[in-house]
Each structure stands twice: as C-alpha cells, then as structure tokens.
Amino acid sequence: MSTNSPSSGTPAVEPVIGLIGGSGLYDIDGLEDKEWRTVETPWGMPSDQLLFGRLAGVRCVFLPRHGRGHPIPPSRLNYRANIDALKRSGVTDIVSLSAVGSLKEELPPGHFVIIDQFIDRSFAREKSFFDTGCVAHVSMADPLCPRIGDTLEDKARGLGLDVTRGGTYLVMEGPQFSTRAESNLYRSWGCSVVGMTNMPEAKLAREAEICYATVAMVTDYDCWHPDHDSVTVDAVVKVMQSNADRARALVASVIPALGQPRGLCRAGCDRALEHALITAPDRRDPALLAKLDAVAGRVLNRA
Ligand SMILES: CSC[C@H]1O[C@H](OP(=O)(O)O)[C@H](O)[C@@H]1O
Ligand SMILES: Nc1ncnc2[nH]cnc12
C-alpha cells in the first residue's frame, strides 16, 4: 500500500503549500484571508514579509523570492532565512516559480519545464543549515519532489499549457547573464534551462525536509540561439508578464490537489534527515542546535 495515503498507518500530513515567486511574480491572486506577516529566523530576515492565506481552503504561504519590487539580486538572497521562515510557518510542500533561459530549441519562451535535475555552479552563497558542531549530509540524487512534479504535470496538461516533464536546470551565480561560451558549454552538457536562484534553495529545502518542485518558466533563449537576440532584462520581464498569467492558473489548479491530507511523501523528501546526521550527540554545538530548531527539530528533539 502506498505510504502516500493516510490509511497506510503513517502519520497523516495536513499539507501547507509554500509558493516562492521568482522574477515577475511578487504577489499571488485569489488567496482568502490574505495577510502579510513578518517572520524572523535565526538566519536573519527573509527576502520580504510572507503572505499567508487560503486558496480553496488550503493553507498557503507566498514568498516573493527577490522581495516586492525586486530589490535583492540572486547572490544576496538569504536563502537560509527564506527556507527557515517557510518551515517555521508550517510549510510542507514548496512550489518554486522561476524564470529561466532556454538551452534547447524545443523549449521556446512561454514553455514551462517541470525540471527533475540540477547542476549547481553557484559559488557565493551559504549552502547549508549545518556546520561545525552539527554535520549532516543529505541525499540530492533526486533533488526535486516527483510527487509534486506529477501533480504539476497533470494540472499543466489539463490546462493545455505547453509543458515538458523533466530537464536539468543549470544554476549560475550571476548576476550577469552567461557568455556565449558558457551558454554553449551548458548546452553541450545536455542542460535544458539556466537560472540563478534554485540553488541552494533546493538543497536547503531538502535539509529542512520540505518537498520542493520547480516550474521553470522559459522567458528567453539566453544568448546561444542564432535567430534570437541575447537575453535582456526587458525581454525577460516582457515574457514573464505573459507567463505569470499561466503560472497563476497553474497554481490555482494544483493547490487543491497538493493540499489534500496525505501520508508521508513516497520519495522520502520529508524524512531526508533520518540518516543524515553524523556528529555524535555529545559533540554537537548547542548554539547551532538552537538555530536548527525549525528545520531539523524533528530529528534533533526526538528521544
Ligand atoms: C530578470 S532575469 C534574471 C533573474 O530571473 C530569474 O529569477 P527567478 O529564478 O527568481 O525567477 C533568475 O534566476 C534571475 O534571478
Ligand atoms: N538567460 C537567463 N539566464 C539566467 N537566468 C535567467 N532567468 C531568465 N532568463 C535567464
């Protein structure tokens, strides 16, 4: 019997859906009981307040990744505060909405890719909640939640959206766009899309035992395509505004499905820390353990 249903005897999960809005998505429509709230974390302040509400009766929490008005660039995002704030708010599932460049002819602007892999080439970022005093190594073999990915694909196809399931998202540091040599290198690696934000976001979501999936929304062909101008912010924003309407329709469609009471995630995202800690209890740093109260409390506080 699937561990995905409450009847399997595993603890029933009442999902709370986190939505991380990328470039062009700084608010979310249709939420009832909307309320912006400040959520403080031991890692500092998230990009902005979090927007709490309900959609079709499902509890949702929206975070504008770059802050409302887009004041924060990818390298300066406080990814640990963002993920901790969502965890601290009870979020069990995250849908990341991200603007990307396409590295494949068959993925034109306006296309949505439900990615299933990453190559992380970011470097100037704090990438883990763990550190000296509490060491942990989580699996990132499958860095995105296939359970959420199935629902995203099903609802996107139901809406008639141009969507591809599967693909690799190349995470670059930025903030400058890629050189042509870099863009063609990523294409030679078989990557599908390129962006600047989904790492360490996905790694931190895994450490926080939150199921995480990305809708990569193509806004441009980066700078490799001979028949298209190289990417500019104006081009991204222009396409993102049309993508945003489809993104809102997709969100409205998936939340009722993702919000249904369920068992544990069949992919194990919500038990990622089960066998990941390696530091002996008597060598763990109390100050770090205090900071891990939300993201790792399940494994650190059990008898
Ligand atoms: C404005 S183009 C570059 C910018 O857009 C993407 O942001 P997000 O992933 O939050 O949608 C990309 O990662 C860059 O941050
Ligand atoms: N071409 C591109 N490179 C990096 N991030 C992007 N976001 C949107 N388009 C992008």
TrEMBL record:
UniProt keyword annotations, A-Z: Glycosyltransferase, Purine salvage, Transferase
Gene Ontology MF terms in the entry: S-methyl-5-thioadenosine phosphorylase activity
Protein's pathway: Amino-acid biosynthesis; L-methionine biosynthesis via salvage pathway; S-methyl-5-thio-alpha-D-ribose 1-phosphate from S-methyl-5'-thioadenosine (phosphorylase route): step 1/1
Ranges where the Nucleoside phosphorylase domain occurs: 17-255
GO cellular component, one term: cytosol
Catalytic activity: S-methyl-5'-thioadenosine + phosphate = 5-(methylsulfanyl)-alpha-D-ribose 1-phosphate + adenine
Family matches, as Pfam families: PNP_UDP_1
Any Gene Ontology biological process: L-methionine salvage from methylthioadenosine
UniProt: phosphate binding residues: S23, R65, H66, S98, A99, T197
EC number, as in UniProt: 2.4.2.28
Residues where substrate binds: M196, D220, Y221, D222
Residues flagged as site, Important for substrate specificity: S178, V233
HAMAP family: MTAP (MF_01963)
Protein purpose: Catalyzes the reversible phosphorylation of S-methyl-5'-thioadenosine (MTA) to adenine and 5-methylthioribose-1-phosphate. Involved in the breakdown of MTA, a major by-product of polyamine biosynthesis. Responsible for the first step in the methionine salvage pathway after MTA has been generated from S-adenosylmethionine. Has broad substrate specificity with 6-aminopurine nucleosides as preferred substrates.
Quaternary structure, from the entry: Homohexamer. Dimer of a homotrimer.
Family named by the database record: Belongs to the PNP/MTAP phosphorylase family. MTAP subfamily.
Protein name as it appears in the record: S-methyl-5'-thioadenosine phosphorylase
